[in-house]
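Take one record.
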Amino acid sequence: MSNERKILVVDDDSGIGEMLKVLLEFNGYKVFVTEKPEMVHKIIRKEKIDLVLLDLLISGINGSDVCVDLRNSDEKIMRQMPVLMMSALHKAREICNQAGANDFISKPFEIEDLMNKIEELLKDQETAK
């Protein structure tokens, strides 16, 4: 995977955010991390993000609301942004699907599973261009 692919990690647990940053950078991605869901649109625009890795439970707001907000945006880039949601909650997959997420991964997850999902979503995005 090329270094130019950019991933935004949105998780209110800074430890998880940093762990994902190290893992994804090791695998060749440029990674941005935020604990603030209100920054998602700004970071996507500024950094030309290719994929959002979004936690379902974020302090102050539900991650599914962030996904719905992206899908309902007036901006095409936001509506078409690949979103991979993650959660340890039972029945979270259904919530994420209803919010418009492209895919879901259960916590804890295997690194290989996460990387496969990311690569698949980025490949799908490239094919759609």
Notes: DSSP finds six helices and seven strands in the chain. The chain has a mean pLDDT of 94. The longest strand covers residues 6-10. Helices lie at 14-26, 40-47, 63-71, 76-79, 92-99, 111-128.
